[in-house]
Amino acid sequence: MNAPSFSTNKNTAFSKSLKSRVNNYFKTNNLSKNANSSMVAKTILMLCLFFGPLIAINTGLISSVWLLFALYIISGLGMSGIGMGIMHDAIHGSYSKDKKLNNVLGLTFNLIGANASVWKIQHNVLHHTYPNVNGADDDINPPFFLRFSPNTKWHWTHKFQFIYVWFFYGISTILWVTAKDFVRITRYKNMGFIDKKSEYRKELVSIAGWKILYFMYALILPLIMVPLSWWIILLAFISMHLVTGFLVSTVFQIAHIIPDTDFPLPDDENKIEGDWYRHQLLTTSNFSPRSKIFSWLIGGLNYQVEHHLFPNICHVHYRNISKIVEKTAREYGIPYHVKKTFVGAIWDHIKMLKMLGNKKPAFSST
C-alpha cells in the first residue's frame, strides 16, 4: 500500500497542548484511562443480552413465532452492544492495561460472527489513520452502487442511494458474517499487511473456524431444536442481523459522512495537508452529546472526535474529556463538529448522501 503521510509532524502546538490537558485530567482526578465499574457492568449486560436469548432458543422450548422473533431481536441488540461497547475498546487496547484481557475480550467480535484480525487492519490501521481519505480509509470504500466520498467515481444509481442505502446498512452484518472478512483479508494480503502465505492460510482457517462456530449456535442448532418451520427460524435469524446492521452502520456512518466533514486528498507528493490531530477533527463529528443513556448504550461512539483523537482511552471517559477537546480546538481555530441530536445527525447523513448522488456535488472538500 502506497500510504499517504501528513505534511506536518504530530507534535504541533495544538496536539501537545491537547495531550497535556487530557493527561492532566486523568492525573488530577486520579483516574485510569481504562475501563471502570460501569464498563464492566455494560460488558456483562451486553454478553447476557446476546447469549441469553440464544440459549433460550436452543433449549427447544420456544414454539411461539413472535417469541422467537423477539428473542432474536433482543440478541441483535446484544450483538450491537458487543460490537460497539466491548470489542471496540478491547481491540483498540483501551479496555484494560492487560493485553491478554484485551485480546480475550476482542474475541467477542469473533463470537458474533466477525473477525478481530480483519477489524484491526480495516478499522484501527486504515480508518483511524486516514478517515475520509479516498483510497486509504476502507470505511468509504463500498461497492460501486454506494458513494461515500466526493472523490470517488459517480454512477447514476447514486442519485437514489439516500433511499436504498438503509437496506444495505441493514444487511451489512449478514454480509460480514458470510463473505466480507474473506474478501478483506485477501485484499489486505495483496496490500502487504500479511507477508507470508502460511500466515494468510492460517488467517483463512481461523476466520472459517470462528464463523462455523457462530453459525452452529446462532442458526444450525435453532434449526434443529426449535419446533417451527425452517424458514421462520431463518427469518428470525435475519431479523437479528437487520437490527444489528442498521444500528452499527448508522452510528458509524453519521460520524464521518455528513456535509460538515472534509474529504481531503493527498498532494502530488502523497502528503495530506496539516497534522494528524487536526485531520481527525476536520473529518469527524460528534452527535447527541447530552444523552448519557444513549451514549452508554452505543459505546460512547457519539463522541467520535474524542475516540479518533484518543483511541487508547476507554469510551466511558469521552464525555468528560470532550469539554477539554472542544475548548482546545476552539483556542487553536480548529473546527469541532457536533450535532445536537442523533436524529439530526441522521438527517445530515441523508443530505450528504443526496449531495454525493449528484454528478457535480453542490459542495467542495478541502
UniProtKB/TrEMBL annotation:
Keyword annotations: Membrane, Transmembrane, Transmembrane helix
Q: Pfam families given for it?
A: FA_desaturase (PF00487)
Transmembrane region positions?
43-63, 69-91, 163-183, 204-224, 230-252
One term under GO cellular component:
membrane
Fatty acid desaturase domain span? 65-338
Its GO biological process annotations read:
lipid biosynthetic process
Database matches in CDD domains: Delta6-FADS-like (cd03506)
Return one GO MF term: oxidoreductase activity, acting on paired donors, with oxidation of a pair of donors resulting in the reduction of molecular oxygen to two molecules of water
- Does Ubl conjugation count among this protein's keywords? no
UniProt-recorded name of the protein: Linoleoyl-CoA desaturase
The record lists the organism as: Christiangramia gaetbulicola
